[in-house]
Amino acid sequence: MSPQTTGTPEAPTPQPPTPQPPTTRQPQPDPATGAAVKAADRAHVFHSWSAQELIDPLAVAGARGAHFWDYEGNRYLDFTSGLVFTNIGYQHPRVVAAIQEQAAKLTTFAPAFAVEARSEAARLIAERTPGDLNKVFFTNGGAEAVENAVRMARLHTGRPKVLSAYRSYHGATAAAINLTGDPRRWPSDSGSAGVVHFWAPFLYRSPFYAETEEQERDRALAHLADTLAFEGPGTVAAVVLETVPGTAGIMPPPPGYLAGVRALCDEHGVVLILDEVMAGFGRTGAWFAADHYEVVPDLLTFAKGVNSGYVPLGGVAISPEIAETFARRPYPGGLTYSGHPLACAAAVATIETMADEDVIGQAERLGREVLGPGLAELAARHPSVGEVRGLGAFWALELVRDRETREPLVPYNATGGANAPMAAFAAEAKRHGLWPFVNMNRTHVVPPCNLTAEEAAEGLAALDAALSVADEHTV
Question: Using CA atoms, how far apart are residues 81 and 392, in angstroms rounded to an integer?
Answer without folding.
Answer: 14
